[in-house]
């Protein structure tokens, strides 16, 4: 779930950054902020999709770990 939370944080940050970019800011700061939006896009295109196999496994409600007896571990 860490990837999902990090993606959500990037989305919040990108949303704020976009509002800042809609205003008047110095070019140096604008370049830095555009970099943040690019980083957000990276997370959503390459990192977030890697969570799908894990979420599929969890959605199958596999209870192997829950049924394990602590004496057997």
Number of helices, counting only DSSP H or I runs of 4 residues or more: 4
Give the beta-strand count.
0
Low-confidence stretches: none
Structural class: mainly alpha
Determine the N-to-C terminus distance. Answer: 25 Å
Strand content: under 5%
Gyration radius over CA? 19 Å
Shape: rod-shaped
Average pLDDT for all residues? 88
Largest sheet: none
Order of helices and strands: HHHH
Q: Considering DSSP H and I runs of 4 or more, what fraction of the residues is helical?
A: over 70%
Question: Keywords, please?
Answer:
single chain; 73 residues; mainly alpha; rod-shaped
What can you see in these coordinates?
With 73 residues, the protein is mainly alpha-helical. The protein is built from four helices and no strands. The protein is rod-shaped and about 65 Å long. The two termini are 25 Å apart. 4% of the residues are buried.
A few lines on this structure:
With 73 residues, the chain is an all-alpha fold. The chain has 4 helices and no strands. Helix 1 (2-21) runs antiparallel to helix 2 (27-47).
Outline the secondary-structure elements.
Blueprint: H1 2-21, H2 27-47, H3 52-59, H4 64-67
